[in-house]
Automatic annotation (TrEMBL):
Any one Gene Ontology cellular component term annotated for this protein: cytoplasm
Taxonomic superkingdom: Bacteria
EC numbers for this chain: 2.3.1.30
Protein name in UniProt: Serine acetyltransferase
Span of the signal peptide: none
Pathway membership: Amino-acid biosynthesis; L-cysteine biosynthesis; L-cysteine from L-serine: step 1/2
Annotated ranges, domain Serine acetyltransferase N-terminal: 15-119
Length: 270
């Protein structure tokens, strides 16, 4: 009787399988970058291993070696499989929502928004484990390398797309739901020196435009839209569009899930 054939591990992970195929195609098209494609993708068996390698390369310093970072990230992924699941959701979200992303490979190799969020997931895991100094050091390096400052205490959902990602700030007690899209220069911050729970809570499916500032312990409802350049100081109801300084409700969200369509035009849906 023939022995049952072992399943191909890659076939059980379609996101990782696609990334590997894209890396092989990229290698054929640009052999001068073969070292990067091999070391960052093709050398690894899993997306988690590739993420640990890529992020440790980017974030290592004389104070924090690449080897130590890789060991920490490998340990985090082994202890919490949801980190890898969230990374896959973020890759798919970026591919589906960002017209500049035509391959799954791109976020892993080139997109600092994706990389910053994955590094934050590691710092948040360290924070939960009581390793505050290590978490803060990773936060500092992410800010220095990517221009994205997310406090380790902030809770970030899955299916996150941060386009361009320059000058993103997310405070300690902020919560970002699932399937959220935001553009560059967004701040989820406090309003002063108060302690405790002081940062915004962003619902699922929310779209936050470039340069928007959401300040204080306020709630933004599911599938709401925040217009570019707005300053939001009060709760935003679900499925509404707010705009202005200070922001006010100007209409409906315009669609079921604004973060997926990325439609930022206001058509007067009062």
């Amino acid at each position: 009787m023939a022995q049952a054939q072992k399943p191909n591990l890659h076939s059980l992970d379609p996101v990782w399988e696609r990334i590997r195929h894209e890396a092989e195609a990229a290698l054929d098209a640009e052999p001068l970058l073969g070292g990067m494609f091999h070391s960052s993708v093709l050398h690894h068996k899993t997306l988690e291993q590739a993420l640990a390698f890529r992020l440790s390369q980017k974030l290592s310093t004389a104070e924090l070696s690449e080897q130590i970072l890789r060991e920490i990230m490998d340990a985090a992924h082994a202890a919490d499989p949801t980190l890898g699941e969230a990374a896959r959701a973020d890759i798919v979200a970026t591919f589906e929502r960002d017209p500049a992303c035509n391959r799954f490979l791109k976020p892993l190799l080139y997109f600092k928004g994706f990389q910053a969020v994955q590094a934050h997931r590691i710092s948040h895991w360290l924070c939960r484990e009581g390793r505050a100094d290590f978490a803060s050091l990773i936060q500092m390096r992410v800010s220095e390398c990517f221009g994205v400052d997310i406090h380790p205490g902030a809770r970030v959902g899955r299916g996150i797309m941060i386009d361009h990602a320059h000058s993103i700030v997310i405070g300690e007690t902020a919560v970002v739901g699932d399937n959220v899209s935001m553009l560059h220069s967004v701040t989820l911050g406090g309003t002063g020196k108060e302690d405790g729970d002081r940062h915004p809570k962003i619902g699922n499916g929310v779209l936050i435009g470039a340069g928007a500032k959401v300040l204080g312990n306020i709630h933004v409802g599911d599938c709401a839209r925040i217009a570019a350049g707005s300053v939001v100081l009060e709760d935003v109801p679900a499925r509404k569009t707010v705009a202005g300084v200070p922001a006010r409700i100007v209409g409906e969200a315009g669609c079921a899930q604004p973060s997926l369509t990325m439609d930022q035009l206001f058509r007067g849906e009062i």
